[in-house]
Amino acid sequence: MSNKANGNFGDFGGTFLPEFLAEILGTLAEKYDELKVTPEFQNDLKALYKNYAGRPSMLYYAERLTKKLGGAKIYLKREDLNHTGAHKINNVVGQGLVAKALGKKKLIAETGAGQHGVATATIAAYLNLDCDIYMGARDMDAQKPNVYRMKALGAKVIPVTAGQGTLKDAVDVALGAYAQDHADTYYLLGSAVGPHPYPTMVRDFQQVIGEEIKEQMLAEVGKLPTAIIACAGGGSNALGAFTAFIANEDVELVAVEPAGLGAETEKHGLSLGKGSPDVIHGFKTLVMHDDEGEIAESYSAASGLDYPGISPILSMLKENGRLALGGVTDKEAVDAFIALSHLEGIIPALESSHAIAYLFQDHGKYSNPDDIVVVNLSGRGDKDVENVFENLI
Which of 374, 322, 296, 328 is nearest to 232 (CA)? Predict the structure, then answer.
């Protein structure tokens, strides 16, 4: 196994893969380092953000939610308004351009809630590339609308029945497929996880979220927010919102993980809150373990948060004290899903509902009316309404 030094974030990250795969990703890292500094690549990326993804996304003042909570002004970064309905399009646009520059003919991706799968199928159609999406069988059943969307876009959706049939298992099988067919294929990883250079690439393509928040906040209220809150499964939307503010130490960065059926149970996904260092999917990060020290099965009603690890960049930020952590149960997330829908006429993704729910846990934390809190509303809840009303209420 090879452990490349590149892509380390403190004690986390790196590349822990068989040598031939490490060499393939090493070539990808070199190509990305060359591409990202060229004006042509940056101009193409900005053009797609604007003319295809629909950026900049709106920063919305949630007046009724603010009144309900009775404290800080609450703003929502409306990533749910992006093309395909989530922040995932930011990443696939960038990686799609990388794949095209490498001359690849097909995209392979994993997906949990289906939003990354839909986004990957979308950019594959736009770039005229074949597309295979690996999705856990359990997630396919819970996220049927997104399965149909991927098929409508021309993608082949491949069910994964191994393990729990969820995101971790989909990553396992997708990586195996990529190892067998990498000559003309590009593996488009959906979150800021995996071996180098994926965490770096995904962070780079998602950080536009926080850059826009900063610009919009200064233009609208003349100051930076008190806190930025985002749900965290793999970590792409959280890093997207956080990265531009890491150096602004007065801005609290809150990563909200899925507490599932409760932090005291075995049914949760608290990688930052309860994990310890280990290697998963070719990189080192904070990972959940069972009583025997093996990587534990994660759980969340929100398929996109159901992962036993986390971005190595978030692990580093947690270890150096830059992150505040939250944990939200399924019930709290569903209650927030309904509350935001009723209060603002905005149906959030069940993943994003975890970040909203954090506001309801401690009314006193942001009680100062002069404070401003931005919640990254990472996606819309069209995909979740059937599951919520049929299975979770």
Answer: 328
Do 166 and 302 touch, CB atoms closer than 8 A? no
**Other C-beta atoms lying within 10 Å of the C-beta of residue 336:** 24
Residue 311 phi/psi, 5° resolution?
Answer: -55, 135
Q: Strand 276-280 to strand 283-287: parallel, antiparallel, or no bridges (unpaired)? A: antiparallel
Of the residues 104, 300, 378, 383, only one is catalytic, namely: 378
Mean pLDDT of the chain: 94
Query: Cα(393)–Cα(374) distance, rounded to whole angstroms?
Result: 27
**Active-site choice (4, 77, 104, 110):** 110
Domains, the chain: 2-48+87-202 (3.40.50.1100), 56-85+207-392 (3.40.50.1100)
pLDDT digits (tens, 9 = 90+) for 257-275: 999 999 999 999 999 999 9
pLDDT at position 363 is 67
The answer to whether 365 is a known catalytic residue is no
Maximum separation of any 2 CA atoms in the chain, in Å: 57
Q: Check 77, 88, 365, 383 and give the catalytic one.
A: 88
Strands ordered across the beta sheet of 130-136:
156-160, 130-136, 106-111, 185-187
110 catalytic per annotation: yes
261, amino acid identity: L
Q: Which residues contact 324 (CB under 8 A, 6 or more apart)?
A: 227, 252, 253, 254, 255
Based on its alpha-carbon atoms, the radius of gyration of the chain, rounded to whole angstroms, reads 19
Q: How does residue 33 score in pLDDT terms, banded at 50, 70 and 90?
A: very high
Residue 50 bears catalytic tag: no
| HSE-up (13 A, CA, CB side) for residue 249 | 3
